[in-house]
Protein backbone atom coordinates (compact mmCIF):
# COMPACT_ATOMS: atom_id res chain seq x y z
CA UNK A 1 0.00 0.00 0.00
CA UNK A 2 2.75 2.42 0.94
CA UNK A 3 4.69 1.40 -2.16
CA UNK A 4 1.62 2.15 -4.29
CA UNK A 5 1.19 5.58 -2.74
CA UNK A 6 4.87 6.39 -3.28
CA UNK A 7 4.63 5.29 -6.93
CA UNK A 8 1.50 7.43 -7.30
CA UNK A 9 3.42 10.42 -5.90
CA UNK A 10 6.22 9.79 -8.40
CA UNK A 11 3.64 9.65 -11.20
CA UNK A 12 2.18 12.97 -10.04
CA UNK A 13 5.63 14.56 -10.12
CA UNK A 14 6.07 13.26 -13.65
CA UNK A 15 2.74 14.81 -14.67
CA UNK A 16 3.84 18.11 -13.15
CA UNK A 17 7.16 18.03 -15.01
CA UNK A 18 5.35 17.26 -18.28
CA UNK A 19 3.01 20.23 -17.74
CA UNK A 20 6.02 22.44 -17.01
CA UNK A 21 7.78 21.24 -20.18
CA UNK A 22 4.81 22.62 -22.12
CA UNK A 23 5.53 26.02 -20.57
CA UNK A 24 9.26 25.71 -21.34
CA UNK A 25 8.61 24.97 -25.02
CA UNK A 26 5.65 27.29 -25.68
CA UNK A 27 6.23 30.03 -23.09
CA UNK A 28 5.82 33.38 -24.86
CA UNK A 29 8.77 35.14 -23.19
CA UNK A 30 12.18 34.13 -21.85
CA UNK A 31 11.34 34.74 -18.13
CA UNK A 32 8.46 32.25 -18.51
CA UNK A 33 10.92 29.60 -19.59
CA UNK A 34 13.32 30.44 -16.78
CA UNK A 35 10.55 30.17 -14.17
CA UNK A 36 9.40 26.83 -15.60
CA UNK A 37 12.97 25.47 -15.63
CA UNK A 38 13.44 26.52 -12.00
CA UNK A 39 10.22 24.73 -11.04
CA UNK A 40 11.33 21.62 -12.97
CA UNK A 41 14.51 21.62 -10.86
CA UNK A 42 12.49 21.86 -7.64
CA UNK A 43 10.22 18.99 -8.78
CA UNK A 44 13.28 16.87 -9.61
CA UNK A 45 14.55 17.44 -6.06
CA UNK A 46 11.33 16.07 -4.57
CA UNK A 47 11.17 13.14 -6.98
CA UNK A 48 14.76 12.16 -6.10
CA UNK A 49 13.67 12.04 -2.44
CA UNK A 50 10.77 9.74 -3.37
CA UNK A 51 13.03 7.51 -5.50
CA UNK A 52 15.51 7.13 -2.66
CA UNK A 53 12.64 6.04 -0.37
CA UNK A 54 11.39 3.50 -2.92
CA UNK A 55 14.87 2.02 -3.43
CA UNK A 56 15.47 2.35 0.37
CA UNK A 57 18.92 3.84 -0.04
CA UNK A 58 20.39 7.09 1.24
CA UNK A 59 22.97 7.37 -1.53
CA UNK A 60 20.92 9.80 -3.62
CA UNK A 61 20.56 12.44 -0.94
CA UNK A 62 23.67 14.33 -2.06
CA UNK A 63 22.04 14.74 -5.45
CA UNK A 64 19.26 16.71 -3.75
CA UNK A 65 21.71 19.33 -2.48
CA UNK A 66 23.63 19.53 -5.74
CA UNK A 67 20.48 19.82 -7.83
CA UNK A 68 19.14 22.56 -5.55
CA UNK A 69 22.35 24.56 -5.90
CA UNK A 70 22.49 24.07 -9.68
CA UNK A 71 18.85 25.11 -10.17
CA UNK A 72 19.42 28.27 -8.12
CA UNK A 73 22.64 29.23 -9.92
CA UNK A 74 21.00 28.58 -13.29
CA UNK A 75 18.02 30.78 -12.46
CA UNK A 76 20.30 33.60 -11.26
CA UNK A 77 22.36 33.37 -14.47
CA UNK A 78 19.23 33.40 -16.64
CA UNK A 79 17.75 36.41 -14.86
CA UNK A 80 20.99 38.35 -15.10
CA UNK A 81 21.25 37.54 -18.80
CA UNK A 82 17.66 38.64 -19.41
CA UNK A 83 18.14 41.87 -17.50
CA UNK A 84 21.62 42.99 -18.62
CA UNK A 85 22.39 40.99 -21.76
CA UNK A 86 25.64 39.66 -20.28
CA UNK A 87 26.33 37.09 -17.59
CA UNK A 88 29.87 37.91 -16.46
CA UNK A 89 30.70 41.62 -16.37
CA UNK A 90 34.32 42.56 -16.77
CA UNK A 91 35.87 45.90 -15.93
CA UNK A 92 36.91 46.65 -19.50
CA UNK A 93 33.39 46.26 -20.87
CA UNK A 94 31.00 49.14 -20.84
CA UNK B 1 -1.02 0.05 14.85
CA UNK B 2 2.21 0.92 16.54
CA UNK B 3 3.67 4.40 16.77
CA UNK B 4 6.33 3.57 14.23
CA UNK B 5 3.76 2.55 11.65
CA UNK B 6 1.72 5.70 12.26
CA UNK B 7 4.84 7.81 11.65
CA UNK B 8 5.51 5.92 8.41
CA UNK B 9 1.98 6.64 7.25
CA UNK B 10 2.38 10.31 8.15
CA UNK B 11 5.55 10.42 6.04
CA UNK B 12 3.94 8.72 3.04
CA UNK B 13 0.86 10.95 3.18
CA UNK B 14 3.07 14.06 3.43
CA UNK B 15 4.84 12.96 0.25
CA UNK B 16 1.52 12.39 -1.53
CA UNK B 17 0.31 15.81 -0.38
CA UNK B 18 3.49 17.39 -1.72
CA UNK B 19 2.99 15.70 -5.08
CA UNK B 20 -0.60 16.95 -5.33
CA UNK B 21 0.48 20.51 -4.46
CA UNK B 22 3.20 20.28 -7.10
CA UNK B 23 0.68 19.30 -9.78
CA UNK B 24 -1.55 22.22 -8.71
CA UNK B 25 1.47 24.53 -9.06
CA UNK B 26 2.16 23.21 -12.57
CA UNK B 27 -1.49 23.76 -13.51
CA UNK B 28 -1.13 27.32 -12.26
CA UNK B 29 1.89 27.80 -14.51
CA UNK B 30 -0.17 26.60 -17.46
CA UNK B 31 -3.36 28.55 -16.77
CA UNK B 32 -2.30 31.95 -15.42
CA UNK B 33 -2.07 34.83 -17.91
CA UNK B 34 1.36 36.51 -17.54
CA UNK B 35 4.87 36.12 -16.12
CA UNK B 36 4.20 37.77 -12.77
CA UNK B 37 1.17 35.66 -11.83
CA UNK B 38 2.99 32.55 -13.07
CA UNK B 39 5.92 33.37 -10.86
CA UNK B 40 3.50 33.64 -7.93
CA UNK B 41 2.17 30.13 -8.66
CA UNK B 42 5.64 28.67 -9.17
CA UNK B 43 7.51 30.06 -6.21
CA UNK B 44 4.82 29.75 -3.53
CA UNK B 45 3.32 26.37 -4.09
CA UNK B 46 6.39 24.54 -5.34
CA UNK B 47 8.38 25.64 -2.30
CA UNK B 48 5.55 24.27 -0.18
CA UNK B 49 5.54 21.01 -2.16
CA UNK B 50 9.27 20.54 -1.73
CA UNK B 51 8.98 21.21 2.00
CA UNK B 52 6.26 18.56 2.38
CA UNK B 53 8.12 16.00 0.27
CA UNK B 54 11.55 16.38 1.87
CA UNK B 55 10.01 16.45 5.36
CA UNK B 56 8.18 13.21 4.52
CA UNK B 57 11.41 11.61 3.34
CA UNK B 58 13.19 12.80 6.50
CA UNK B 59 10.50 11.31 8.78
CA UNK B 60 10.51 8.07 6.78
CA UNK B 61 14.27 7.54 7.01
CA UNK B 62 14.17 8.51 10.68
CA UNK B 63 11.50 5.98 11.65
CA UNK B 64 12.42 3.09 9.34
CA UNK B 65 16.22 3.17 9.35
CA UNK B 66 16.83 5.28 12.44
CA UNK B 67 18.89 7.51 10.16
CA UNK B 68 18.81 11.27 10.83
CA UNK B 69 19.73 12.78 7.50
CA UNK B 70 21.44 16.15 7.84
CA UNK B 71 21.54 16.43 4.05
CA UNK B 72 17.73 16.46 3.82
CA UNK B 73 17.50 19.21 6.44
CA UNK B 74 20.15 21.19 4.56
CA UNK B 75 18.18 20.69 1.35
CA UNK B 76 14.98 22.00 2.98
CA UNK B 77 16.77 25.07 4.37
CA UNK B 78 18.55 25.74 1.08
CA UNK B 79 15.38 25.55 -1.01
CA UNK B 80 13.60 27.79 1.46
CA UNK B 81 16.33 30.42 1.28
CA UNK B 82 16.90 30.38 -2.47
CA UNK B 83 13.43 29.94 -3.99
CA UNK B 84 12.04 33.41 -3.05
CA UNK B 85 15.29 35.05 -4.16
CA UNK B 86 15.11 33.33 -7.54
CA UNK B 87 11.44 34.29 -8.00
CA UNK B 88 12.14 37.90 -7.13
CA UNK B 89 15.13 38.13 -9.49
CA UNK B 90 13.23 36.60 -12.40
CA UNK B 91 10.29 38.99 -11.87
CA UNK B 92 12.65 41.97 -11.69
CA UNK B 93 14.44 40.89 -14.86
CA UNK B 94 11.10 40.36 -16.62
CA UNK B 95 9.86 43.83 -15.65
CA UNK B 96 13.08 45.52 -16.74
CA UNK B 97 13.01 43.59 -20.02
CA UNK B 98 9.60 45.18 -20.75
CA UNK B 99 7.49 42.03 -20.50
CA UNK B 100 3.91 43.37 -20.57
CA UNK B 101 1.38 42.85 -17.78
CA UNK B 102 -1.74 40.81 -18.48
CA UNK B 103 -4.97 42.47 -19.64
CA UNK B 104 -6.84 44.08 -16.76
CA UNK B 105 -3.95 44.14 -14.32
CA UNK B 106 -4.93 47.56 -13.02
CA UNK B 107 -2.63 50.55 -12.63
CA UNK B 108 1.12 50.15 -13.10
CA UNK B 109 2.80 52.61 -10.74
CA UNK B 110 6.36 51.38 -11.26
CA UNK B 111 6.47 52.11 -14.99
CA UNK B 112 6.73 55.95 -14.86
CA UNK B 113 9.35 55.68 -12.11
CA UNK B 114 11.53 53.26 -14.06
CA UNK B 115 11.06 54.32 -17.65
CA UNK B 116 9.73 57.91 -17.39
CA UNK B 117 6.91 59.01 -19.66
CA UNK B 118 3.53 60.60 -19.12
CA UNK B 119 1.50 60.26 -15.97
CA UNK B 120 4.61 61.14 -13.98
CA UNK B 121 4.02 63.37 -10.99
CA UNK B 122 7.67 63.52 -9.85
CA UNK B 123 10.45 63.57 -12.44
CA UNK B 124 13.26 61.01 -12.00
CA UNK B 125 15.86 63.76 -11.38
CA UNK B 126 13.86 65.20 -8.48
CA UNK B 127 13.43 61.70 -7.11
CA UNK B 128 17.19 61.13 -7.22
CA UNK B 129 17.77 64.44 -5.44
CA UNK B 130 15.31 63.44 -2.74
CA UNK B 131 17.06 60.12 -2.35
CA UNK B 132 20.43 61.80 -1.99
CA UNK B 133 19.22 64.05 0.82
From TrEMBL, chain A:
<keyword id="KW-0813">Transport</keyword>
<keyword id="KW-0472">Membrane</keyword>
<keyword id="KW-0050">Antiport</keyword>
<dbReference type="Pfam" id="PF04066">
    <property type="entry name" value="MrpF_PhaF"/>
</dbReference>
<keyword id="KW-1133">Transmembrane helix</keyword>
<keyword id="KW-0406">Ion transport</keyword>
<comment type="similarity">
    <text>Belongs to the CPA3 antiporters (TC 2.A.63) subunit F family.</text>
</comment>
<dbReference type="InterPro" id="IPR007208">
    <property type="entry name" value="MrpF/PhaF-like"/>
</dbReference>
<keyword id="KW-1003">Cell membrane</keyword>
<dbReference type="GO" id="GO:0015385">
    <property type="term" value="F:sodium:proton antiporter activity"/>
</dbReference>
<keyword id="KW-0812">Transmembrane</keyword>
<dbReference type="GO" id="GO:0005886">
    <property type="term" value="C:plasma membrane"/>
</dbReference>
<protein>
    <submittedName>
        <fullName>Na(+)/H(+) antiporter subunit F1</fullName>
    </submittedName>
</protein>
From TrEMBL, chain B:
<feature type="transmembrane region" description="Helical">
    <location>
        <begin position="68"/>
        <end position="91"/>
    </location>
</feature>
<keyword id="KW-0472">Membrane</keyword>
<keyword id="KW-1133">Transmembrane helix</keyword>
<feature type="transmembrane region" description="Helical">
    <location>
        <begin position="42"/>
        <end position="62"/>
    </location>
</feature>
<keyword id="KW-0812">Transmembrane</keyword>
<keyword id="KW-0813">Transport</keyword>
<feature type="transmembrane region" description="Helical">
    <location>
        <begin position="6"/>
        <end position="30"/>
    </location>
</feature>
<dbReference type="GO" id="GO:0016020">
    <property type="term" value="C:membrane"/>
</dbReference>
<protein>
    <submittedName>
        <fullName>Na+/H+ antiporter subunit G</fullName>
    </submittedName>
</protein>
<keyword id="KW-0050">Antiport</keyword>
<dbReference type="GO" id="GO:0015385">
    <property type="term" value="F:sodium:proton antiporter activity"/>
</dbReference>
<dbReference type="Pfam" id="PF03334">
    <property type="entry name" value="PhaG_MnhG_YufB"/>
</dbReference>
<dbReference type="InterPro" id="IPR005133">
    <property type="entry name" value="PhaG_MnhG_YufB"/>
</dbReference>
<comment type="similarity">
    <text>Belongs to the CPA3 antiporters (TC 2.A.63) subunit G family.</text>
</comment>
